From TrEMBL, chain A:
Source organism (scientific name): Chanos chanos
Metabolic or biological pathway: Sphingolipid metabolism; Lipid metabolism; sphingolipid metabolism
Highest taxon of the lineage: Eukaryota
Protein's name according to its UniProt entry: serine C-palmitoyltransferase
Similarity field: Belongs to the class-II pyridoxal-phosphate-dependent aminotransferase family.
PANTHER family the UniProt entry points to: CLASS II AMINOTRANSFERASE/8-AMINO-7-OXONONANOATE SYNTHASE, SERINE PALMITOYLTRANSFERASE 3
Main location: endoplasmic reticulum
Any single biological process term in GO: sphingosine biosynthetic process
Cofactor(s) essential for the protein: pyridoxal 5'-phosphate
SUPFAM superfamilies linked: PLP-dependent transferases
GO CC annotations on file: endoplasmic reticulum membrane; serine palmitoyltransferase complex
PROSITE patterns documented for this protein: AA_TRANSFER_CLASS_2
Automatic annotation (TrEMBL), chain B:
Major subcellular location class: endoplasmic reticulum
Keyword Phosphoprotein: no
Keywords, in A-Z order: Endoplasmic reticulum, Lipid metabolism, Membrane, Sphingolipid metabolism, Transmembrane, Transmembrane helix
Subcellular location: Endoplasmic reticulum membrane
The protein's name in its UniProt record: Serine palmitoyltransferase small subunit A
GO biological process: ceramide biosynthetic process
A UniProt-annotated Pfam family: SPT_ssu-like
Bilayer disposition of the protein: Multi-pass membrane protein
Metabolic or biological pathway, per its Swiss-Prot or TrEMBL entry: Lipid metabolism; sphingolipid metabolism; Sphingolipid metabolism
Top-level taxon: Eukaryota
């Protein structure tokens, strides 16, 4: 069409099915029982009938102001400790599609662990953020990384502003800008610090931040450090965001009613606990209508969505120039560490001198920078092979397959059809521990998450699909999930799927192209 | 054979009971405490029912004038 109507790509299906009511009741009952026993055990510890494994003050200090706040650790002490063996498992190989774990046992119910000396080998890795499979140790692929390590060493020993600005950083930044389709980019050594140290440089007092309910801690920390006013809108809810925008533009700052200096909308590309995709075209339309700025955190979505792996902007067909601040991390899809901020040249030049991370934090290590460069070149196809595009397509295919099979088995899965983060809801606290242990016994490593990272009734297991997973691995995982789902009774979905396959490929009406 | 299958089934039901009440997360002696409390409360309810049910049923029938 000739006019300026932007043509956005259609959004895949979202699903956030609610479990039956009895599940919520049983979850609360389970938490209630464990809490009562928690109080009972705390009483035994206070009376002295049971040995206290936690830090305690010395006898001479008992009259002073208490050093260790007893009650705040109630949840850690009485719930988390009981199932602590499901987290922080030591890994002794690279976190590829399969990995090795060190076996450990505990004699005193998870207060202390002992290593048996054995290694659990070839555990299928369904928890690492290895979306494109770049966490690999293939010597051919890593040849340039080895060369750069020989050339530059490993440490930079300075900040970017002082003597830490190497030519490899400049190369990485221009490549990142080309990859994202923007004018300019800047990279930082740590992904969390990219958010928490750069948001204070962009906004300050007198500005307004509209942040999604489920934003990551790094964004919340950066927003709080900046001193701007923060208002939260409901997760992915455009009516809630529009209401806040209207109110902000009409009423202005709280007491003086002066207009806000800046309004910044902070959202993420993929929310890692829900697997949901941001509603980018709607937010861009709102931002243009109310003249606000958009900060998009593509930590999980860069490289993982989009036909050529360029992130949610490409996935929805949104022009990257419409997003004011594009932020992302290299930890997930690129198999390295660090983060970037990209956008217009003025923005990035401003950040180079005003960001805390640029001025005070040590620069990115050269081998890590080279790993990102070789991963980006692979995805873009610049290195002459089609390996990158193969991986992007493989990831999309694995994601669709995994999600479709899980839904048809009857599990409740959250999120968008195209997101490689797949949360499988378990709800009950007892099942969370049982699920993780049972999967490990079947040689599959999963990440389970409970309160406080998720709402108290919605504990889940979070799978991260990778391009490095073969169909055979996914089938093994799905088979075990099926069996375990029946054994533990976690198939709560009430959507019945037809056992008959689709009988036709074409539709019986004309489609406009 | 039948006892083996029945035992497996009962064992699975007990496992479900442990998962749903979150007793799975507790130590064995805590499970014993909880199970004893539950069984004693249930036992007391059954005993009370056994002792008082005939009287209650006679009172109801008397109220509806089914017996004199």
């Amino acid at each position: 069409m000739g006019n300026n109507v932007p043509h956005y790509r259609p959004r895949g299906e979202d699903s956030f099915e609610q479990a039956p009511l009895y599940v919520a009741v049983l979850t609360y009952m389970g938490f209630g029982i464990v809490t009562l026993f928690g109080y009972f055990r705390d009483f035994l510890r206070a009376v002295g009938l049971e040995k206290c494994h936690l830090a305690q003050e010395r006898e001479e200090q008992k009259d002073f102001v208490p050093l260790y706040q007893d009650f705040e650790n109630f949840y850690t002490r009485n719930l988390y400790m009981r199932v602590r063996d499901n987290w922080n498992r030591p890994i002794c190989s690279l976190p590829g599609p399969v990995f090795d774990l060190m076996e450990r046992v505990s004699d005193d119910y998870n207060w202390t662990f002992k290593f048996t000396g054995k290694t659990i080998e070839n555990v299928i890795n369904m928890g690492s953020y290895n979306y494109l499979g770049f966490a690999e140790n293939n010597t051919d692929f890593l040849k340039t990384v080895a060369d750069k390590t020989r050339e530059y060493g490993v440490g930079v020993c300075s900040t970017r502003q002082e003597l830490g600005n190497l030519d490899i950083h400049e190369e990485l930044e221009s490549l990142a800008a080309k990859f994202l389709g923007v004018e300019s980019a800047m990279t930082f050594g740590m992904g969390f610090a990219t958010n928490s140290m750069n948001v204070p440089a962009l906004v300050g007092k007198g500005c307004l931040i509209l942040s999604d309910e489920l934003n990551h801690t790094s964004l919340i920390l950066g927003a709080r450090l900046s001193g701007a006013t923060i208002r939260v809108f409901k997760h992915n809810n455009m009516q809630s965001l529009e209401k806040l925008l209207r109110e902000a533009v009409c009423s202005g700052q709280p007491r003086t009613h002066r207009p806000w200096r800046k309004i910044l909308i902070m959202v993420e590309g993929i929310y890692s606990m829900e697997g949901s995709l941001v509603r980018l075209p709607e937010i861009v339309a709102l931002k243009k209508k109310y003249k606000a700025y958009l900060y998009l955190d593509e930590a999980h979505s860069i490289g993982a969505v989009g036909p050529t792996g360029r992130g949610v902007t490409e996935h929805f067909g949104v022009d990257p120039a419409d997003v004011d601040v594009l932020m992302g991390t290299f930890t997930k899809s690129f198999g390295a560490a660090g983060g970037y901020i990209a956008g217009s040249k003025e923005l990035v030049d401003y950040l180079r001198s005003h960001s805390h991370s640029a001025v005070y934090a040590s620069a990115m290590s050269p081998p890590v920078a080279e790993q990102i460069i070789r991963a980006m070149k692979c995805i873009m196809g610049v290195d002459g092979t089609s390996e990158g595009q193969r991986r992007v397509k493989q990831l999309a295919e694995n994601t669709r397959y995994f999600r479709a099979r899980l839904q048809e088995m009857g599990f409740i899965i959250y999120g968008n059809q195209d997101s490689p983060v797949v949360p499988l809801l378990l709800y009950l606290p007892g099942k969370v521990g049982a699920f993780s242990r049972a999967m490990l016994k079947r040689n599959i490593g999963v990440v389970v998450v409970g309160f406080p990272a998720t709402p108290i009734t919605e504990a889940r297991a979070r799978f991260c699909v990778s391009a490095a997973h073969t169909r055979a691995m996914l089938d093994k995982v799905l088979l075990n999930l099926d069996e375990l789902g029946d054994l533990l009774l976690v198939k709560f979905s009430r959507h019945k799927s037809s056992p008959r396959p689709e009988l036709f490929d074409e539709v019986d009406f004309e489609l406009d192209t | 054979m039948a006892f083996g299958d029945a035992w497996k089934q009962i064992s699975w039901f007990y496992y479900q009971y442990l998962l749903v009440t979150a007793l799975y997360m507790l130590e064995p002696w805590e499970r014993t405490v909880f199970n004893s409390l539950l069984i004693s409360v249930a036992g007391m309810a059954v005993y009370t029912g056994y002792v008082f049910m005939p009287q209650h049923i006679m009172a109801i029938l008397h109220y509806f004038e089914v017996v004199q």
